[in-house]
Structure formats: C-alpha cells, structure tokens
Amino acid sequence: MNNEKAVWELRLGFGTHEQAKDVRERMARVLCPDPDHAPPCPIPWSVSLVDQSAIDPPGLYAELEEQARIESLTDRS
User: Fold this and answer.
1) Per-residue pLDDT for 26 more than 70?
2) Element spanning 14, H or E
C-alpha cells in the first residue's frame, strides 16, 4: 500500500446557499468531530463554499443540475 500523503478534494452540489452552509457545517463535524481539541488538528482539512459562477469549466455539473430540476418537479406532485 502506498503511504505517500496526498491532497483529496470532495465536491458536493446543493441548491441553496443555506443548504450548502448546513452541509459545510456537517462536513466539518465529520472531519473534526472534536472542534474544541488543542491545535493542530491530527488531519489537516478545510471546507469552503464556492459559488457556481466560479466553477470551471461551466456546465461541469450539468447532470446534477438536471437531476435537481427533475426532482423539484416531482416534489410538486
């Protein structure tokens, strides 16, 4: 097994800013379940929100956007 350290990025897509903030807080608790521990954190991590307009290339999440659109139509029935 390779023991070299690497950077991993996890991207999650959400509909509203409030939903994204909620998920950011939940992910922070998963990555660091004890926010009151003495620094440094044993696992370096960070969480940030990025507006869709900053995503490169445009349309990167077109499939996810289509799924959300379809599900929103289903929720109305």
Assistant:
1) yes
2) none
